[in-house]
Amino acid sequence: MRRWSQLYGWGITSVQFDKAVRSKPEWPEGRLVAVSLVAYLHPARGKSSLQRSFDAYSTVIARKRAFAGRDSLLGGGEHRLRLIDGIKIEPCLRWVVIDLEANCNQAPLDVRDPNTSPHIEMFATVALHTHWANRLGKRGIPHVHFSGLQVNARCTGDWQGVPSAVGLPNIGRYQLNVEWEQTVLPGYAVPVLVKS
């Protein structure tokens, strides 16, 4: 992540990284639980913290060898992507622990919670844990919804979409899609923040 910050101008200092390294949590028990260091970037150049953080992780993910593409609905700025009600982003560098197989076969709308639903943390996890992302949809590893976010999927202001990371097991790659938040999709999980 230090390299990404330097390469893409995220503005995270060595002091911040050193402090984060010293506070890394223990890896928790669980088959599909991840520890991720997440950069919530400061607003800049007319972009909010959410949009700037999304753009930063999207750039990193797009350069991964196993990345197959992104739904065109996951772009276009503030009028296309927002946090669910009750979530606020404070710019910082922080560790999170995410249960990546929680809420299997449930609709994101039914289980989302502003205290436990990951948002930018999921983009960071996809970027950091490529080994896991490459196996989405294989051997019991569920595809995942990012339930702390909403996508204006029709550009009509209905905000019924949710970003998802979906594996393409036949070719060993993954992509970022937009799914409907009220739909139950077999083989999908709605991850939760265990610790942040």
Explain this structure to me?
Helix content is 24%, strand content 26%. The chain has helices at residues 2-8, 14-22, 49-62, 108-111, 120-128, 130-133, and strands at 33-40, 67-70, 81-83, 92-99, 143-145, 149-151, 161-168, 173-180, 188-189, 192-195. A 5-stranded mixed sheet has the order 2-8-7-5-9, with no helix packed on it. Strand 7 and strand 8 form a beta hairpin.
User: Segments where pLDDT lies below 50 for 5+ residues?
Assistant: none
Quaternary arrangement of the chains shown? single chain
Biggest sheet, open or closed, and with what strands and sense? 5 strands, mixed
Shape: globular
Number of domains: 1
DSSP summary: helix tally = 6
Distance between the termini: 18 Å
Q: How is the largest sheet built, in terms of strand order? A: 2-8-7-5-9
Instruction: Give the tally of β-strands.
Output: 10
> Mind telling me the C-alpha Rg?
16 Å
What percentage of the residues does DSSP assign to strands (E)? 25-35%
Average of pLDDT:
92
Assign a percent range to the helix content: 10-25%
Question: What structural class is derived from the secondary structure elements?
Answer: alpha+beta
Topology pattern, helix = H, strand = E: HHEHEEEHHHEEEEEE
Describe the SSE topology.
Layout: H1 2-8, H2 14-22, E1 33-40, H3 49-62, E2 67-70, E3 81-83, E4 92-99, H4 108-111, H5 120-128, H6 130-133, E5 143-145, E6 149-151, E7 161-168, E8 173-180, E9 188-189, E10 192-195
Parallel strand pairs: 2-8, 5-9
Antiparallel strand pairs: 1-4, 3-6, 4-10, 5-7, 7-8
Helix pairs in contact: 3-5
